Amino acid sequence: MIAPVVEAHEGIRVVRDDLFPGGTKARFVPALFAAADEVVYASPAEGGAQTALAHVAAALGKRATIFVARRAERHPRTREAARLGARIEEVSPGYLGVVQSWARGYAARTGALLAPFGMDMPGAVAAIAEAASATGEEPDEVWCAAGSGVLMRALAAAWPRARRVAVQIGRALKPGDVAGAEIVVHPLPFGRPCKAVAPFPADPHYDAKAWELCRARRGPGRVLFWNVAGPARP
Fold first, then answer.
1. pLDDT given at position 234
2. Please, which pLDDT band fits residue 170 given cuts at 50, 70 and 90?
3. Which residues on neighbouring strands pair with residue 15, listed in sequence order?
4. In what helix (H) or strand (E) does residue 184 lie, and over which residues does it extend?
5. What is the total count of domains within the chain?
6. CA dist., res. 215 & res. 110, Å (int)
7. Segments forming the whole domain that contains residue 35
8. What gap in Å lies between CA 226 and CA 220, rounded to an integer?
9. What confidence category does residue 6 fall into, taking pLDDT thresholds of 50, 70 and 90?
10. What is the pLDDT of residue 157?
11. Hey, how many other C-beta atoms are within 10 angstroms of the C-beta on 195?
12. 3-state SS of the chain: helix, strand, coil percent to 5?
């Protein structure tokens, strides 16, 4: 296990998992390939899981197949996944439910493994919690962006006594999704990038939004922010 790099930015301890190839999800996605040569994923156009899966598949010499909405121009995330060797299947109409249906059908026909939405999978929480503990940090307060809630559940396991704030990006979260963390909703939908710029590489659809609110609303004491991934590199 490679411990994350932690840096200080504006008085906040920042976990730089954008430096880990594929970002935080790439820490546990390899488990999907333990019993499969091909993994299929239905991704929002801006979703970071598609590039995490592509990074891992390339490193392991396995196959990643990404189903995504057809667009006039591919999102940089999808272009990055393709550059890494992932097979891209574009779906129209591109509603996420339709994309997921196509991915399920493909997996059923081919015997490929269908990855769960948000990579909410067994072992994910334990893998991230181990990485968090390896930083040696002891924060009073922890912030992160939250989609499926996997990351915040892991951070709760690593730092149960810290105040925890999950910035909701996308679907509505329930307290159980984020292990009882405080939920703060960013006003922009997932598909719209954030204009705020972080002092480190942050996904404008995801982590940059959480950083914006963390800077504005953090409390006193030792504050830690978990940066999942940087912007796409097509």
1. 66
2. confident
3. 6, 226
4. strand 182-185
5. 2
6. 47
7. 29-119
8. 17
9. very high
10. 97
11. 10
12. 35, 20, 40
Residue in 34, 57, 33, 53 with CA at minimum distance from that of residue 43: 53
Query: What local confidence, expressed as pLDDT, does residue 190 receive?
Result: 86
Answer whether the bond into residue 193 is a cis peptide, omega within 30°: no
Q: Please report, for the domain that includes residue 84, its CATH number.
A: 3.40.50.1100
Cα angle for residues 78, 118, 60 (degrees, 5° grid): 65
Dihedrals φ, ψ of 110, to 5°?
A: -100, -15
Within 8 A by CB and 6+ apart from 176, the residues are none
The answer to whether residue 1 is domain-embedded is no
Where helices occur in 61-123 by DSSP H, the ranges are 76-83, 96-110
Report whether pLDDT(1) > 80.
Answer: no
Q: 104 is written with which tokens?
A: 């399920």
The position carrying tokens 């710029």 is: 197
Answer yes or no: are the C-beta atoms of 89 and 100 closer than 8 Å.
no
Residues 34-53, mean pLDDT to the nearest whole number = 94
The predicted-structure confidence for 115-153, as pLDDT tens digits, reads as follows 998 898 999 999 999 999 999 999 999 999 999 899 999
Structure tokens at 155: 């951070």
Residues 113 and 158 in one domain: no
Please name the amino acid found at residue 108: A
Say yes or no: 127 and 212 in one domain: yes
69 bridge partner residues: 91
